[in-house]
Structure formats: structure tokens, C-alpha cells
Fold:
Amino acid sequence: MINTEIKPATDTKSNISRKKIHKFLAYMRHNYILYLFLILPIAYFIIFKYVPMYGVLIAFKDYNMFQGIWGSPWNNFATFKEIFAMNEFYRAVRNTLVLNSLDLIAGFPAPIILAILLSELRNQTYKKVSQTILYLPHFLSWIVIGSLAIQLLSSQSGLVNMLLENLGFEPVNFLTEIFPWYVTYTLFGVWQSAGWNAIIYLAAIAGINPELYEAATVDGAGRLRKIWHITLPCIKPTIIILLILNVGRITQIGFDRPYAMGNHLVTDVSDVISTFVYRVGLRSGRFSTATAVGFFQSVVGMIFLLIANYIADKVGEQGIW
Structure:
């Protein structure tokens, strides 16, 4: 006799749930070390990245350090109205976008080209020495680099201008005229960061399957053909992701570089958001203003990041999510 008894649906669901639990526990037993390693970075981001977001409230209050953040009265967006009415603020935003755009145009391709050139070197000793020399500027403070720029490019006593005068040329005001200052600022930035940023691309190039190059050699391809048809397409996802991240940081700029490279003769182009916050917000004790500018900077940066990621997805490239 055929047993036609049907098991209740609840029993089937409970069996499936038990299997999922057993599968999850087995997975955790094999991989719990990885999750333990994640505890420290997660704790770092929570403590140093998310908890300080509480301080953003200062931008919406007439902050008084004696009353604290919660004790200070709300200002009905008065701080934002104040900064949006300041001509210096718009100048700082414009200069930030211009300088970061120059860094993006000149500084983003530089480590890619440098990484490809280093990967093509066959002499390993020369390659290691070259990498070490190219990495070193990254560890120099911008204060040191600014002093170096003055010693080299000063219109009166700079080594470069002294050499130009000895050759019969007129001295160039690298640090006191707007266009030469733009060039100087950008080139020193490329020199300081290109070697270090090339590490990521070197790692991506090292992951390319050597058989692709061997097959290209058999087909008679030269070095340039290999670079164009193998190296660049293989590191293209890395390039796209780093480009998106760089576009997202287009409103973010450090304080030390423009402060060290700038002077009162080029304030119209060297005064950026970070120096504006230092001068108008922190040095004057206007913490609400400083926080409001920083909040504006973060929001605009996030918008640029989302736009760049959206465009990457639309053109068929892999974004950051």
C-alpha cells in the first residue's frame, strides 16, 4: 500500500532552517580567523570615522565650547547663509577645484606611465634602485618640499634662476606669478606622489598572466603592442576604480601643500578650502563656520563620487560598488 501521507510544511521549513544553521556554523568554523581579523578595521572605522560624525551638529548651531554641542542653540542654518555670502569662500572653492583638476590631469596618468616603464625594465638591480629613488619623495613633508622649492626656484637666490641668468636668460618668477606657480605646484605634486601611487599599478601588472605576453611574442608583437593590447586592458579596472576615487576627492585638499607652496603674492590662486577653514574658522575661533565648510566639502565630494561611479556603470565599466 502506497503511503500518501504528506509532511506538514512547517516540518520542511524547520529542516531547511536547521540545514542553513549547520551550514553557517560549519562555514564559521573554517573562516572565523578572517572575521577576527576584521574586528580591528571595523572598530577603527566606527571609533574614528563614524563616532566623530556627531560633531557635524556644530555646523547647525551657534557653538559654544562651554555649553557643549547639545547645549548650544540651533542657528537656523545661519552659518551656511554666512559662508555662502562670503566672496572668499567661493574663491577658495574655485581654487580647490582648479588645483585638484590640475593634479587629476597631470598627476593621475603619471603613476600609470611610471608603473608600465618600471615593469618593462629587465635589469632587476636597476629596477629596484629606481623604485626606491622614486618612492622617497612620498616620505618628505610638504614643509620640507616647500623649503626645497624656495631654494631652487626663488627669483633672487634660487639655483634654477641663477643658472638661467648665467646662460643669459631672464629669471622666471616661479613662486610669485600665477601661471608659473600653477606649473610649479602641479609638477612638485607629481614628483612627490607618482612613485608611491605607482605601487598599486605595479601590483596590478604583476597579476597579469605571463602567457598573454608569450602568445603576443609568438604573434610578433613588440613592446608597445603588448603594452597597448595586454597591459593597459588588464589594469583597466584598477585605473577606473582609482579614477572614481580621485574624482570623489576633487573637493578634498590637504592644508600643508597649498600652505607651504603659497605666499601672499599668489593668495588669489593658492587660498583653498583647507586654508580658508584654518584662517576664517579655526584661527578666529569660529568653529561653526569651520564645520559648515567641511560639511559642504564632504557633501560635494560625495556627489562627485556618485556621478563618477554612475558614469562608469553606464559605459560598462566596473565601479566601486
Remarks:
- The mean pLDDT is 87.
- The chain has two domains: 9-52, 77-314.
- The longest helix spans residues 9-50.
